[in-house]
């Protein structure tokens, strides 16, 4: 069995502040382990920012927050070159994306042009500026929050931007017991402020390397491919799961196995990740935009029922 005590400490530390859906906490940790990024979509006031802040404060890493607005420029995220008269030279001043944990709050209030400024950073872990390529620190994770598209003042995320997020998830409303704890403790004002790191950046990097070593049997690889193929030929889908989506699903399954203390994957590791990893990557024929997750979730559930999992 693998030593997952650091991961349990991380989960418990986050849960001491975010008093809601523990499945969301697990998925956030899985994204961190899988070197992925996460998009949290829900109505205002259910704890999206609290969850992201709790993760950042639980890691002994650098943290930055970008409050997305319609007038935000790409250079406000990646950085800008400043001219120094004394030296007669330009110097690149790094933007908030140069941090281990980046919170892009209300990302769909920024224009698509500004949203796209994150593409290279999220896909390759680099930023290109002034003819130079700057490496981002490791670990690196973008936690983006957004309000539902029907809310006023929001923009659709471009499809290529959505595809860079390993998972897209919602939190939902807390249970009555959890809401009672929130009302009594007011964690955003009290415990969040006092939260201390329980894991170093190097520990995160080591665990990410351990994820790569988690064994996935060929039967499970074939299962992932069968699921992807089923979406590509589904009559209700215009766009199915791409090879990048298959890679994301396999890596999420490995991270889920590691979180459970195993060095091998089981079918449940794949099944539990299909909807959060793939629902935003496929496009239905009836609604030609990836903002439609209700339809794609339903279709993916059908695919899961139709494609037999290995025993």
List the total number of helices: 15
Q: How many structural units, i.e. domains? A: 2
- Write the H/E string, N to C: HHEHEEHEEEHHEEEHEHHEHHEHHHEH
In total, how many beta strands?
13
Mean pLDDT: 89
Give the CATH topology of the largest domain: Rossmann fold
CATH architecture descriptor text of the largest domain: 3-Layer(aba) Sandwich
**What profile does the largest beta sheet have?**
5 strands, parallel
Tell me the helix content: 40-55%
What is the straight-line distance between the termini?
A: 22 Å
Q: Can you say what the CATH homologous superfamily of the largest domain is?
A: P-loop containing nucleotide triphosphate hydrolases
Q: If you compute it from the alpha carbons, what radius of gyration comes out, rounded to the nearest whole angstrom?
A: 20 Å
| Helix-and-strand structural type | alpha/beta
If strands are numbered along the chain, what order do they take across the biggest sheet? 3-6-9-1-10
CATH classification, class level of the largest domain: Alpha Beta
Which range does the strand content fall in?
Answer: 15-25%
Give start-end ranges of low-pLDDT stretches.
Answer: none
């Amino acid at each position: 069995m693998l030593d997952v005590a650091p991961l349990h400490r991380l989960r418990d530390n986050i849960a001491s502040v975010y008093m809601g859906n523990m499945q969301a906490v697990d998925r956030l940790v899985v994204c961190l382990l899988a070197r992925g990024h996460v998009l949290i979509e829900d109505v205002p006031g259910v704890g999206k920012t609290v969850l992201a802040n709790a993760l950042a404060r639980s890691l002994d890493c650098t943290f930055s927050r970008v409050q997305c607005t319609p007038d935000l420029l790409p250079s406000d995220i990646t950085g800008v070159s400043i001219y120094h008269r004394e030296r007669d030279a330009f110097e690149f001043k790094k933007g908030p994306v140069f941090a281990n944990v980046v919170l892009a709050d209300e990302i769909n209030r920024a224009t698509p042009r500004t949203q796209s400024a994150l593409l290279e950073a999220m896909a390759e872990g680099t930023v290109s500026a002034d003819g130079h390529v700057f490496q981002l620190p490791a670990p690196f994770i973008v936690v983006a929050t957004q309000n539902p598209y029907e809310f006023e003042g929001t923009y659709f995320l471009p499809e290529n931007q959505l595809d860079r997020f390993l998972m897209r998830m919602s939190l939902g409303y807390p249970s009555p017991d959890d809401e009672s704890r929130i009302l009594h403790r007011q964690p955003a004002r009290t415990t969040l402020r006092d939260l201390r790191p329980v894991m170093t950046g190097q520990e995160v990097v080591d665990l990410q390397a351990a994820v790569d070593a988690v064994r996935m049997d060929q039967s499970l690889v074939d299962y992932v491919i069968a699921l992807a193929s089923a979406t590509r030929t589904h009559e209700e889908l215009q766009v199915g799961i791409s090879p990048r989506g298959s890679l994301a699903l396999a890596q999420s399954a490995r991270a889920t196995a590691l979180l459970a203390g195993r060095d091998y994957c089981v079918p449940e590791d794949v099944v539990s990740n299909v909807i959060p990893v793939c629902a935003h990557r496929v496009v239905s024929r009836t609604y030609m935009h990836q903002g439609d997750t209700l339809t794609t979730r339903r279709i993916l559930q059908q695919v899961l029922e139709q494609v037999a999992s290995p025993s």
